Amino acid sequence: MLGKSCTTAGAGTSVVSLDGTKEVYPTGGLWVGGVKTTDKITDATITFYLPTSLGSLAWVNTRLVADPTYVPVWSTPKVDTTVTPRSGYTAYTMKYSGGWTYNSTDKTYIAAVPPKFTAKISYATCTSSITAYSTRSVRVNGTVYSFTRGPVTI
Known about the structure:
Layout: E1 2-5, E2 14-19, E3 31-33, E4 41-51, E5 60-61, H1 62-66, E6 78-79, E7 89-96, E8 100-103, E9 108-111, E10 116-121, H2 123-127, E11 131-140, E12 143-153
Antiparallel strand pairs: 1-2, 2-10, 3-9, 4-7, 4-11, 5-10, 6-7, 8-9, 11-12
């Protein structure tokens, strides 16, 4: 889901991306396993921890740029100081308010719409390794479940 594209042509054309369309269930995206069709899934969030050396990133919903009539179901990632801090990293949280598709074979709810955001970074920063973490959180019938992945290097 996390990636980058480093381009020397033009100023500010290198980007870091949060793109859930590149990989879908079961290798990517947001899903909740071991659930029943009657379970209530709410308060889904993904928090990405990116190095503070990247500066404060201004995220752009690339779906909305491509289609101005698109109604966002993922909030734009914003700096989140309410989550558990990670030294040397800035936390960016995005919230999901869209629908869920139930996979009865796997007893899994899958977020119907994956996130798709980019933020400009410098070419010099882009060509260096970027290490990140992500925490996914969801509430099932009122109980919060979360897990952290990382570190990953892009």
